[in-house]
Design a protein that fits this description.
single chain; 517 residues; alpha+beta; Jelly Rolls; 2 domains; five-stranded antiparallel sheet
Amino acid sequence: MEFRHYNTNDTAIIKGAAILLICLHNFFHWLPPSPGENEFLFFGDSVSNLFNLLGDRPLEFVNILFSYFGHFGVQLFLLISGYGLARSMMKNERSWLPFFWERIKKLYPLLIVGVLFLFFTIVLTEGRLFSDTEQTELCYKLLFIQTLVPGSALTLNGPWWFFALILQLYIFFPILYRLTKRFGWKAFLSICLISYAIIYIYKFQLGLFDGEMIMMNMPGHLPEFCLGILLATNKQPKISIIWLFAAIALFVLGNFYKYFYPLTFLAVTIITIFTYQGLKAIPIRKRILKKTLMHFGGISMAIFAVHGALRHPVLKFAAIYDNAAWHLLAGIVFLLIVWCASIAAKKIYELITRPLAKVQINDCRATRITGNILQSALIAFFMVIAAYYTYAGIDVKQPNFISSGEMVESGTIGTADTYSRITKLDIDKRYTNLQIEGSVEYKGDEAIPIVLEIPDMVWTKFDIPANSDGEFKEFNFSYNHVVPFVKNTKKNVLKLYFWNKDGHCGEFKNAKVSISH
């Protein structure tokens, strides 16, 4: 098949389809019945859940299909991003710094607009400000490192994980562009091999953080992005129909077998290319659909920035009735709210970017030298963080005993005892992770939580259930904390205590706690 290069309308249509898939997926996968999805992790029962739910509740097909397949809209964005950047570079060759400045002055204000919408949504719907934990997570987002910090990629606003991914691709784009332009298919296949080698080692050989982090960062989605670059830099690209059959086979296998799962994302991208080329060849023009997709494509990044903050209030409305028609109505209401908010967000975004648009960086010898230094510094920064957490992930698998702490093995909890200490441990070194396991026997008519605290680093609680039969009952708990690279455990202290905030009575004995790293 001869590939017909995309024009402005084509890219807008594909972006429109992509953002609708992503937006509705991020809404419906929170709304039962949801089969789950294989986006960052592979779950073997997700595809069986898909077919079972379609058989048991066929009227919920909109909910079920968007829940399972909608996240593949990300691949459409990556394809179009790689394609659009390469076509732009071909028209106006420039060094890294002018290129990166063009991207960052558009990307960062978009994130700021998203933060504003999230802030006011929380204020209006929950009547509060950002908590301390949320402020920390917001800092990771503003630094675009949330996908490198375990457990942070999907916090605060889940869809924003894509900001970190796209920034990484912007940093490496000129290198990828030059390689692909010079070596064509050889460069693309080499990049794919390197990318999949990293994925399989990280995800299946080492099993670090269940392999989730690697699928949120550049190695996990480099092939789709580079395929867009390859199509753009090839003057008359032709794609064999064998690629389509291979992509369909890999996509099917990737939904049933975990070792094929990483290939599903490139497979979907290839299937999309063939599908859209086929649709373009059909002479029938559906103008309403075309204009609708182009409209949503034009505001796609604004939708992406704000839709995550708006879904939870609508989900409460959707949960009123467990009914297919009601769920569909909730999805339409959500889309309308997001549409209106995105139009407003785009106006704010344009207002913010207007003064930045006037700031240009000319391509000259000085900017090339500065750009090379800055690019190298950014690559080193991200690689150091990635290396730190990779080491932390390996360290988690090889725990070393630290200490059992200063134990209080038994005691009573009175109504006036707000805090009853179990153990306290001074941490003597800088560790990348801490693993806490323990047990306690408890007797009491009311539930009392145990709190694990490391000041300015960890605060989490475990709820001990009530035990009113007059006998002690053992309660086990465990917690693993990967220490953020900006934190130092040395000279800090780990505290474990009962938090009797409701003034209950109880007794405990045989408290045991072990701490390892």
